[in-house]
Amino acid sequence: MDSMVATRHTTLERLAHYVNIVSISLLLASGFIIYLGLPYLAYSDAYAIHVISAAVFISVNWIVMPYSAFVNQAIRSYFFWPADFKRLWRVVKNFFTGSEYPQYTVYDIGKRRFTNRLHPVGKLLIYVHYAALFVATVTGVALYSTSMSLMGVNLSGLVLRIMDVIAPSFHLSGLALARVLHVAAAYLFIAEIIVHVGVVQLDPRKLQHLKSMFIDGKEDVLSDPTADIVDTSEGEGEYAEKVVIRVK
Fold first, then answer.
1. How far apart are the first and last CA of the chain?
2. Which of 20, 117, 165, 184 has the fewest CB atoms within 10 Å around its CB?
3. Which residues contact 25 (CB under 8 A, 6 or more apart)?
4. pTM, entire model
């Protein structure tokens, strides 16, 4: 067998990734223009861009991406399993000693899909991403309006009451604390992007993954140096326990 072409990223995942890149770029740019008072845009224009891009970014990450993971039966692959700890340790060893780099992509012939696509550092970054997103979303509600309600519940008031309880410990008002946490979340996004792009995605072993994400969604698993090809059709247990017939 000379090749084994498989779908690594669905059309929905690729579209969501494009939208994420555009929306987070606009979100960060407009946010720092507002926060630092930069002269590149009028405040009203920057504010409008910030609110719209925030709505798009929140929708993609809280709705579209979880939905995609569910329909593609990929939710389990986002958990950090014992196998991921082993891969992470081998990544660290490779960095410091030049030892063999781990195969972290797992394609299951029996299930005809990837049971793991994520670099172990990439998985950790997803947790950082959603922690920052949660903080940015919650504090953004309070900063957007003090009377934002959903189903009769004043969400802004609820967030501000929580902030008012915590804020005195930092000698701040609740609204000021919300602003500080909102900006902190922005810096956390920037740190995540630097590690995600600069450390993980620019790895030359991942060229097929980048092509899959941005172009056609496909990859030749046999020629992927990061791929571990297995067959669970005659085994039992989840991929995390690795009860498999190993093909590659």
1. 12
2. 165
3. none
4. 0.85
Nearest to 103 by CA among 235, 188, 230, 195: 230
**CB proximity list for 94: less than 8 A, separation 6 or greater:** 100, 101, 102
Residue type at 12 in one-letter notation: L
Q: Which residues pair with 6 in a beta bridge?
A: 219
Q: Give 108-117 pLDDT, tens digit per residue.
A: 888 888 889 8
Selection from 220, 247, 236, 229 nearest residue 103 by Cα? 229
More confident residue, 102 or 246: 102
Residue 26 contacts residue 134 (beta carbons within 8 Å) = no
What values do phi and psi take at 32, rounded to 5?
-75, -30
Q: Which residue, chain included where needed, has tokens 């987070």?
A: 24
8 A C-beta contact, residue 68 and residue 222: no
What does DSSP assign to residue 167? G
Residue 226 dihedral angles phi and psi, to the nearest 5°:
-90, 0
Determine the average pLDDT of the residues in 228-240: 64
Alpha helices (H) in the chain, listed in sequence order: 11-36, 43-59, 65-71, 82-97, 120-144, 155-166, 174-193, 207-211
Beta carbons within 10 angstroms of residue 173's beta carbon: 14
What is the overall mean pLDDT for the chain? 87
